[in-house]
Amino acid sequence: MRIKSPAHCVAPPTGRNMALRELSSLERYLGLKKPNKYSTQGDNKVPVLQNSNGPPVVGLVTVACHLVKEAKRPELLGDSAESRAVVQQWLEYRVTKLDGCTKEDNKTILKDLNLYLQDKVYMAGHRFTLADTFVFYGIHPLIADLAIQEKEQYGNVSRWFDHIQHYPGIRHPLPPVVVLRNTIYTGKHH
Fold first, then answer.
1. What mean pLDDT value characterizes the chain?
2. Whether the model pTM is above 0.90
3. What secondary structure does DSSP assign to 67-101, as a single string?
4. Cβ-based neighbours of 51, under 8 Å, separated by 6 or more
5. Are residues 107 and 130 in the same domain?
6. CA 97, 44, 32, 71: dihedral to nearest 10 degrees?
7. Domain residues for 133?
8. Structural domains in the chain (count)
9. Is 140 exposed, middle or buried (0-12, 13-18, 19+ CB in 10 A)?
10. Does 154 lie in the same domain as 85?
């Protein structure tokens, strides 16, 4: 049985600090050989990368962007000025909207994302970026808590979510979520 956290849609109760798991997962996806050392600071458990080459790097988005640059994968931050701005916009959305959303916010968030993804394969257009990774992690608890019928109301989000959860190396450490049920056709034409 799964226990839902009251009034919040942030990290599932099993993950004391999901942000650190997300960063470790990102390291694996990027193929970084030497794992970094992380800690958290403050009541909100903001991730901190202990950087041996300088001062600590603080904040989920800042650390994630640092890791992408360290791995020499700049395309994950966008391949043009416009796409870089869109990636940054979605990374900020993750931290400011998704990480603190209440149950009352869920439908609005999913409705807005569904409309946005209507003509897009990925958050920043037609290429996988860091925005896809972190928006995926941010809405995973929302999608996991929805019934199949509710997921069908957000077809574009469900399509995008399912695509990203099957993207190699991204879903870990989160469990897979069934997003669409198989339709059984009766043979009758409607």
1. 86
2. no
3. HHHHTT-GGGG-SSHHHHHHHHHHHHHIIIIITT-
4. 57, 66
5. yes
6. 50
7. 78-189
8. 2
9. buried
10. yes
